[in-house]
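Why does this matter for the project? Reviewers at the last site visit asked to see concrete outputs rather than summary tables. In response, this paragraph embeds two records directly. Each consists of the residue sequence and, immediately after it, the corresponding structure tokens. Nothing has been edited or filtered.
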Amino acid sequence: MTRYFIQRPIAVIMTFVALIGLSVLAWLNRPVSLLPDIDVPEMAIRVDYANASPEAIENNILKPMRESFTTMQGLSDLQSAASNENGLLRLRFNYGQRMDLAFVEVNEKIDRLTDQFPADMSRPRVIRVNYTDIPIAKIQLIPKDASNMVESSRLAENVIKKRIEQIEGISLVDLSGTVEEQIKITPDLKALERAGLEIEAISQAIQAANQELGGVEVKDGQYQYYMRMAGRLNNAEDIAAIPIRISDAKYIPLHQLANIKTAEEKVSGFHFYNQNRGIVMNIHKQPQAVMTELMPEIEESIEQFKMDYPTLEIAITQDQSIFLKAGINNLQGSLLFGGLFAFAVLFLFMGSFRLPVIMGISLPLSLILSFLFFEIFGLSINIISLSGLALGLGMLIDNAIIVLENISRKRMEGLNLLDACVAGVGEVRGALISSVLTTLAVFVPLIFLSGVSGVLFFDQAVSVGIILTVSLGVSFVLLPLLYRLFFEKKKDFKKEDSRFFKSIIRGFEKSHHWSFRNKRLSFFLILLIIPLGLWAFWSLDQKGLPDITRNEAVVKINWNEPIDVVENAERTKTLLQSLDSQFQFSETDAGIPQYLLSLENAELQESLIYLQFENEEIKDKTLTAFEALVEQSYSKASFEKENAKNAFDMLFASDEPYFRVQWQDPGLKNADPQSIKPKLENFPADQYQLGPSLEEESSMIMMIKQAELLRYGIAPDQIISQLQRVLGDYKISELKQFAIITPVVLETDAKAFEDLLKAAKVKNSEGKSYALGNFVEYEWGNKLKKITADASGTYFSVNLSEEALPKDPEVLTAEINQWASSHNLIQKVSGRYFSDQENLKELAFILLISVVLLYFILSAQFESFWQPLIVIFTLPFGIMGAVLMLWIGGSSINIMSAIGMVVMLGIMVNDAILKVDTMNRNLKALEKKDKESVYEAVFSAGKIRLKPILMTSITTLLTLSPVLLSGGLGAELQKPLVLAVMGGLTIGTFTALYFVPLVYYRLAS
């Protein structure tokens, strides 16, 4: 087959040119995004119900929804949390569930429940959780005139938002911080008393003056007209002029009984940028969009907005495309340095510039051809698939080096050019195919990991498989053809190695003879790497992601006091101003944000602050001072700080506590802290953290005096409606002008609560007025802030961190079971510890499957049951070498270092397979099978395979080394991977050169 392709150069070249053209088209059409388009089996339902208590939201809304959703197919978990004015219900399904169908079913169930929900509540919002929903950037809109928020909000919603969404590739612009306009009616209680009127008289007058006629038709002969009511209210002046009847002959305008003004609506949250109130836009892209092309278009639009709307200050923050750019830059750097170092290594070892040029053609060509298969398999260009290409790039170099070196060696043995090309490829074809299959045997089973890890590994495994398969095609078809074309006019082929390699091979011969003369010492020195690696492993930290420079932080402050959102915002602004601008900029969400895609169950008394610093040192110093300032100024406030989450943190981080105990109390009647917390006095662990269901807040409990109502002949509905008018913002009506709807709201003076109850009046059936305070009584007390529930009902919980666990989790679980039994509680233990244990068991099983596949593939290659074990036994040495290098480099065991170990094992296996394959060929060529013949076969194979093993290892090490010397986010993410590959490959090279021959000799002789 190789001879057939070599003899038809024009057909082969034209075929590759056509494939390159198709690959370029595939590259241009492939979506470029930060992460793969993962169909996450998770859904959230947000409930917003103004002025509602957690009990009302739980009983009236969340409980009916939970009961309806429990019958859904594929549902694995259901959790809800109800707090003041909002609730959140999260549904988790099994992976593989059709989430588009589940989304439709959830909405249908909510529609069926609509009649059971309170009439004044907006429809619950169903949000599909998707990791691609992470905003690619945020746009800050700050009015230069702070009093201009209403007009700025209309400009943001009606103009800027729509113009950005018109950019191709933008799916949604999610806003927070906007405010609407409303007309506020503040009654003058004394004027009403002098006029002998009640507050409801104002409501009735406005509603009567703002009536619509409805669909009335008038016929005039053959013509037909629709009638509309003239004189509808249009603005605050119209309302102020409404006449109110005092007596049979006396009317006064409304403005004499109330203060009427146009103002901002009452909001539940504010957004601030550098302590200036503003509006924020979260920019979300479509899954198929090219992120690197979107950001320049967004930046261009922002520059145009700055010129068009000078009343706004506009800035872009939290640009997530930096991660994708870092991945692309790393791939470009790997390709560039891989080519340069491969050129240098080939030149030193081979003494010819033609071979490096051939390498320089094949590397980018293989990479370009890979994108054609990206199109076929439907992969996007993202961080995960790019990392797969970068990982496969090192193995691609190895295949090319092995083929070129073997062809050159055949020519040195005296074969002509064509026969050398054919024989050189044919001799290593089986070994290279086996090495690719063994690499895939390590990667591919990882896609069967459950959860998001398996989905992510799919992209990586497929991209690695693509580039390795492409590299085989290039190595078997194009490389021998290019070799022939480059060398056919060169008559005087150099039939000896370069001086550089001659010196290396002399040193190898000496060391090889020494290792066989001192077999026990050699085995001891090699086996010593195992205990050293184990010691290093237990010394290393284990983390999800590597430590990277974090100049951003997120601070969450909960005041734990019943303050309104305005006071919350003022406190937050005051604290930030006291930091003397030690940060570059800040973003603050005080209260409940308005984001459509928000999955946070925020509170009015809570502020979330994003801070950008110049460097980590200033960040740590400032956050420490910030925390001390909060503790000093507000003793009840809780302060939480963490690094700002980037896309990778959001993907891999889990909000699940390390160890959680949740319980239900069948005998509990009143969910108050006094009846729940005493049971925790003999809890088996001391340093626990109360779950959200046990957090307290001060609240007022109001009771209606039923006996007084009966005595004075007043209906309970009158009391409730009057309380709504007096104590809350009571919506009277709304003004409609084209697309603008302006609510008309009744608002009382900001008086003391008791004064309002005394001033407000209610009338009985005889028309006599009495003070509202005569019919109600109230008391202050602590109530639970949130109500948490799952499919079985409401529950309470406590959490324990890894550091706070007093003993082994399994022992603690047994003690918790006894504690629950003694209190007649129904308990359940869960948390990240148990899920991690399941993941480790699953990973161990999958790795076992990988080793079994590896054994089967090598058994078929070597036609032996014991020779594959030689290759497999080299793998622990590589892992220990990787761990030692991680320890030396001051890194940790994390996702990136684990990926590096997998890559390193693929490269190690290649070297060992080639070595064993060559030893088998040499031994087969010899007539005798005694010890001397085995040693001769082993020694000859060592010299034959020394050059490709050293070239592939040195090229890979030099290609990766620039990452260790560079800085920036991309380099910091890649350093653990590079350290793992370099450490494992260094040890792996020595095992291929010395350990494999020693074991082969021992077993074959």
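We now turn to the second protein, recorded in exactly the same manner.
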Amino acid sequence: MISRRNLILTAAAVGTAAQVGRAAGPAHASPAATPWPATASGALEDGVQLRWLEGGAPRQLAAGSTWGVPWPKGTVPEGQSFALRTAAGRQVPVQSWATAYWPDGSLKWTAHAVGAEVPPAEQYVLAAGTPAAPVAAVAVRDGRDEVEVSTGVIRCAIPKKGDRLVRTLVRGDREIARNGRLVCLRQGEPGDDEGGSVKSERFTGRVEAVVVEQSGPVRAVVKVEGRHRHGGRSWLPFTVRLYFYAGSDGIRAVHTFVFDGDEEKDFVRGLGIRFEVPMRDEPHNRHVRFAGPGDGVLSEAVRGITGLRRDPGAAVRQAQVAGQATPPTATWDTRVSSRLHLVPAFGDYSLRQLTADGFQIRKRTKAGHAWIPVDAGGRAGGLGYVGGPGGGFAFGMRDFWQLHPTQLDVRGAAGAAAEVTVWLWSPEAGPMDLRFYHDGLGQDTYPEQLEGLEITYEDHEPGFGTPHGIARTTELVFWALGATPAAARVGEMARAVRTPPLIVTSPAHLHAAGVFGDWSPVDRSTPAKARIEDRLDFLFEHHRGQVEQRSWYGFWDYGDIMHTYDPDRHVWRYDVGGYAWANSELSPDLWLWYHYLRTGKAEAFRFAEAMTRHTGEVDVYHLGKWQDLGTRHGVQHWADSAKQLRISTAGYRRFHYFLTADERTGDLMRDLVDADRTFLVLDPLRKIRTGPYEPDPHALAVSTGTDWSGLALAWLTEWERGGDPGAREKLLNGMRTIAAMPNGFAQGSGLYDLDTGAFAPARPAVNVGSLGAVFGLVEVCSELIDLTGDEAFTRAWLQYCRLYNGTAAEQQAETGQSWGSLNLRQAHSRLTAYAAAKLGDAGLAARAWEEFDTGHAGYPATREFTSARVEGPNVLKPVDEASFVSTNASSQYGLAAIQCLALVGDRLT
């Protein structure tokens, strides 16, 4: 099998990107695809309607915008070119490339990018045609020692080796910033006692590889990889992608680092990105800006000339406050101009956001002197600026307060060059402490650990609660500006950083394209359907509201939600073993993404996006012995000893990748193509298995539920993307051999061949668990059946769907024995609905709705979906409580409702 590490990227632009093509061949030979434009099956004859996710027309982009569009099978041939226009007919420069293919070779997903030249409009149309060319195309020069990118407005030089991420950033003939580098502060102990001092070390990011992934004409992407180094040590591998868009003076950066230290000895005290900014204007014409809450902006000058005992003149004061060049000092009141050297110059500014609800801004003249408090507030906008009328540097971090502790620093602005640092982890917050949260409680043997599961639901095992290999991704934006921006533009830039404008298509088009299996847009056409829609909205809004009310924020936590509620304390069980963070348990990721697909709501997209960023990075190991495995739910995201494919599954990332074309998310899915090798390293059944475990690569014990679904989703995604052909072969071999088992999916597991992806022939057996289908198996089987039409696999899956909630007699008759007392019957009502729809069986359809309404292990139809306000002194702060809600039940109720409505909604009375 071809290694994923040697793949040619398939999402590359071809030529000028006027045509969409592939770098690797399609999964099957491509017959002539139906010419586009399409029929009413999905692509409108005059194009696909697009809009901004948040509505309206943004005044400022975060450099540019990239989005994805799906197409019905057989409607858009490979090589099709695309043009973009506003609804009023104005042409918009666009770059397009393929991100997925149907098995017949036609395009399934395409990605599109616009730069600064996109005219403000509320709606756009994407159609067949020749794309308009940008006035100034992105140009990339890939040299021996560095990559240089020009957007037509700015030029950026990126060294291929050394300790600089960016050598220089130039606008026109003026260098705006230089020597961009990654910085890390490390200390060898937490420093949590009252005595002594802790020594820290400064590490600098050392670039090891630079790759141009896209080269224009509208969008260019440069990937930089390396490690942080100090002395003889190299650690904390990083990947930074820099995004450039035609006509833009901004650069988007996506920064990822992996923790590969020893949590008992390596404490990250600070982690950030730093630039030098040449300061050429006079100190009174040097400006500092920080975005505050909402549209608030702090506007300061390095040497202020307002509020003095003597007045330099109204025109002088007004110009400085506005960030404009002041009149020449010769025109000032001489009582001021002659004494300017006696006005302190404040060269250092710092905004620190140490919690989700509080930031503070301070300034000082220079190092060695006291800080002066400036102001404070709740939630900063995460954007800063330093510069003058001749140009300056703006810097911003997305989810600034959500990912606290964060910090924005300006140092030395009174000198020849300021130093700007965006701290992803503030050095003033205390060190990053990733140690396990308890001492093991004497659970040294498997029997003791199984006892622990019985009381706290925590699956503990010494040495398994390690963060070694987890990661975090942060999005940033940098601007090389020609002058100090007006306060209104600072606010616009801050909004673009906080919520990057994204172009989307409608739920109707997404559904008509036939992507992501069984779902349908919101339908309130009958009282029964409307009631379910109301409940789906309630559950979404309740969980979304809990993020704010329970403050589920922080560097390692933001994006996740809690697992189970504790009504006695009126809190979620944040401190109780396996009941704390959800870590994708029972697929909240899938539920949230399907909620977005069918509603098109911006808040649904942003909620799901934040979860994808978290669960794909923090809850999964990206290096080390458990690479490609995720961690089960617990008090810390990495704490539980159950390391499983059901958490790392690519199925939770596919939505974000195809809707945004985000390369980092694409990396995460491609990394999982070889995830089956984890069975050689770790026995998932080690605590209950009898006898020794000696893994045989040609006969590995792999379940046909949670294990195979995770593998299948990675292989399916790789197949769609036109990548490693071995992924397709393993997927098809798995389908064929599962179907060949005497009882198909009811066998529960089989002996799996690592080389081929096939299961060995087996004797009849039944081993059905309640979790097998609820981590993406339902979704992947539906997609695979639609894609391949494999009759044997379809029969095997339909048998499982019919029998899971069937009677013991029915199970006995077909598989030779009863499946026992199974849990999650409401969740599995969607399996019954699938069988009903495929077989045209009205009896099964009625049974599906009965199972759904009964609500076993979920929410019955008789349940009132309401919450109650709880206030002090019973709680720390007022909260809305729905004590019946659990994330497991919400996720599976949501998925069951969505899929039953799509499959047998016409049978709902």
